[in-house]
Sequence to fold (373 residues):
Amino acid sequence: MKLAFCLYKYFPYGGLQRDFLQIAKECQKRGHEIIIYTMTWQGDKPDGMKIVIVPRKGFTNHGRNTNYSKWMQQHLINHPVDRIIGFNKMPNLDIYYAADTCFAKKVFTEKSYLYRITNRCRHYLAFEKSVFTNQHTKFLVLTQTQIDDFTHYYHTPKQQFFMLPPGIAKNRQYNENSLLRRQQFRQKNGIEDHILVITQIGSDFKRKGVDRSLTAIANLPESLKHKVLYLVVGQDNPNKYLQLAKKLGIENRVRFYSGRDDIPDFLFSSDLLIHPARQEAAGIVLIEALAAGVPVIVTSVSGYAFHVQQANAGQLIKAPYEQNELNLALLEALANQRKRLQWHQNAINYGQTQDLYHLAEKAADIILESKND
Fold:
C-alpha cells in the first residue's frame, strides 16, 4: 500500500517525531510505500521514503497549518494513497496518532472567554473537532485519560480508540554496561562521583517546567545544593532559563544541552529525572528513565506518570500544582539515599518485566488493517 504520513514539522529529538519515524519505518519494513508530507525537515532523511515538502505559507502557526492541510489534500487528489496517517490534528485522516492532550478540555477548563474567540483558538478547536467527529478515523492513543477527554468533549465512539504500549528503544534499558557508561560519561563531562545528577529531558522548556525545576533546586539547603548538578537536554532557547538560574544563584549548578543522540548515557549517569510538566499527553522520557533505572519526580498531569506510580520508582506531584510540593519532593529524594536506591531497583525491574518497547509494531498492525475492520 501507499501510506501518507502527515506531520507539520520534523526534527530528530521530539518524542512525537521519534514515534512518527519508528512507525513509518515499521510500516516500510513490512513492504509498504511511505510518503511523508511536512513543512520542514531537520536531520537525516530515512532511506527509501519520499518526503514532500509542503509550502510554508502564512504569518501564524494556525494559518500555516490551514494552508498545509489544503495543499496536502489537493496534492493527494492527484497522487492518491491507501491510508492517510496524521501526527497532528487535521481534517480527513484515516488514522490519527494522538500524542497531544485534548485541546477542548484546556480551552473550556483553563482559558478565558476572550481566548476562546481568538482565531488561533477557533482554528485548533475546529481541526480537533474535524478529527474526533469523523466516524471513519481510527485513533491511536497513549493513555486512558486521552480516551476519557476526547469522548467527553466529542462523544466519539470508544471502539474507534486503540491504546498503544510505550515504544522506547532497547538501548535505554539498564544492562551490564550501564555502570561503566555512567563512569565514562561523568569523567568525560567532569562530573565527580559524589555529585548528585538531576536530569531533565524534553523540548519546549516552559511546557516541561524547567523554571519549576530551577526553583526547586534553588530552595535546597546549601549543604545539599552544592552536591547537585542539573542537566537539561532539549531543543529550545535556554537563555531565559540561564538568566533565571543566575537570578536564583545556581548558575554554576546548571548545564544546558541541545537535542542529541546519547540520551542513554545521560540517563545512566543520572541519580534522578525531574519532569514537572505543565502539560504532557504522555512523556516518553518517563518510560526511558524507568527502563534505565532512574527514579522520577513528575507532575501527575503527565500521561505516563502512572507508570512511575506502578513501578514504585519515584514520586508524583499532584494537581493542582504547588511549587512547595516539588521543593519538598526533591529534597526528600536527594537526602534519602536508601529510598533512591530502592526506586532504582524498582525501576530496573519494571523495565525488565513490562512491555515498554512495542509501540511501533502495534501501531503498524492497526494502520495496515482493512478499513472495514
Notes: The first helix runs from residue 15 to 29. The longest strand covers residues 33-38. The mean pLDDT is 96. The chain has two domains: 2-165+358-367, 170-353.
